[in-house]
Automatic annotation (TrEMBL):
Its cofactor is Zn(2+). The keyword Metal-binding applies. This is MBL fold metallo-hydrolase. Residues 20-277 form the Metallo-beta-lactamase domain. Keywords: Hydrolase, Metal-binding, Zinc. PANTHER family: HYDROXYACYLGLUTATHIONE HYDROLASE GLOC (PTHR46233). It comes from the Bacteria. CDD domains: metallo-hydrolase-like_MBL-fold (cd06262). The keyword Zinc applies.
Amino acid sequence: MSAPGSVPAEVHVVVAPVFGTNCCVVAAGVAGAEPRDCVIIDAGAGVAEGVARVVEERGLRPRAVLATHGHVDHTWDAAELCERYDVPMRLHAADAYRIDDPFGTLVGAGAGAGAGAGAGAGADAGGAGAEAGGNAGAVAGGRAGSGTIVSGALARELAGLGFVPESYRAPTSVRGFGTRDGFADLTFGDVTLRAVHAPGHTEGSTLYLLDLPGPDGDPGGRGKGAARSGIVFTGDVLFAGSIGRTDLPGGDDATMGATLRDVVTRLDAGLTVVPGHGPTTTVEHELATNPYLG
Ligand SMILES: [Zn+2]
């Protein structure tokens, strides 16, 4: 699948200090025509200053803060950036409920949901081998009904850097989008992305596709049978050599299987993959080597 709106663009990755979430600033156009519109994808914990530096240095004008899904290691700094630039947060409607209560929505059945405010936090950074670390984080273990007890690798890492649940804020404007027929083309000023629904890690997990002109300026190499040039931001659906975990609340193995089969393996081989954590890869490389895409 490819995306519309093939125009020059640039992408800056700001790696979050918590779980190494890849926060991406996607700017339209080429340097020299500032201010240029941009969007921010996955504002993880501690990226706000780094993002602000990119925005300032590159002469950018943020139009929205997007999330590939609603897990808190992808959304922690969204409120600060939305406020700073007076823009809404956008994510798939199926994950929007997580934004108000990011820790509560990580609590597994029987692990503290219900009567008490037991909040559990689990690392969500993928299965075997997401380089970003923390991939094998324990899910949650709030003690049922015992107040706010947060455990798990994510919570520990957050707390170690001063990010405690009590200091979390949700953006004031959170707008979910739907994906009729499985995708939606979203436009933010001069930036157009195709949002592709890819549930399994969470209900509303989304891939964002950015189409880029081919090497000769031909949009995506159209008409030449060449592989399409562009970037797909895969969040916690696909990592280099791995995939996202499905054992957190809202995750589902069978759904992930369908996503991998029907969405991920049908991506254009020429796309560069920027996962939610860990190193960049390509669709072609993952199709050839990722054991979960067999
Ligand atoms: Zn996640």
